[in-house]
Amino acid sequence: MDKKRSAREQKAARAAQDFLTALGVDTAVRGMEATPMRVAKLYATLFDGLGTDPNTLWGEVFETCARGLVAVRHIPFCSMCEHHLVPFFGAVSIAYLPGRGRVAGFSKFAEVVTCLSHRPQLQERLTAEIAEAVHTGLGAHGVLVVCEAEQLCMMLRSTHARGTRTVTSEMRGDEPLDSFAAQAWQMLGGAKKA
Questions:
Q1: Contact at 8 Å (CB) between 139 and 101?
Q2: On the chain, which terminus has fewer CB atoms closer than 10 Å, C or N?
Q3: What confidence tens digit (pLDDT) does each residue in 11-38 have?
């Protein structure tokens, strides 16, 4: 581990200690002595997407003769709600129309989703940022991103919200998207043909 990260984690551990003490939690009891550092290390991982440009993650982009839609469905993610710093989690599905046949390796979509979800987030912003990363990073003609998640802050605060899932979608494109949208929704399991 580099010195800068170690110093940051030490500082975060001291802050976690102060936070827990302020709430009346005794971290000196057996089993909790290392909790502040565990919290610091966990949040360092959960926020390791901060400062990373997702467009640097695409790696080699391949020129193909692809003219049809490409979809990557059900990419799991876990992010932290910026309002309460508790998790929201679920899956992201992406459909895109390659620009000039440019496609990326399928694993790169998971890397981009992980990068953008590993920062304090809102589900709506996360969905929009993923769509923008695919649109600009790959030069896609059209992009549809659908994000379905469970919001732990909502469930913790209301027993009536247990099992509730929130769904957000975002589109990007360089041209009229009506035809693309209908096909993309179909591909991602949305609107059904009549």
A1: no
A2: C
A3: 999 999 999 999 999 999 989 999 999 9
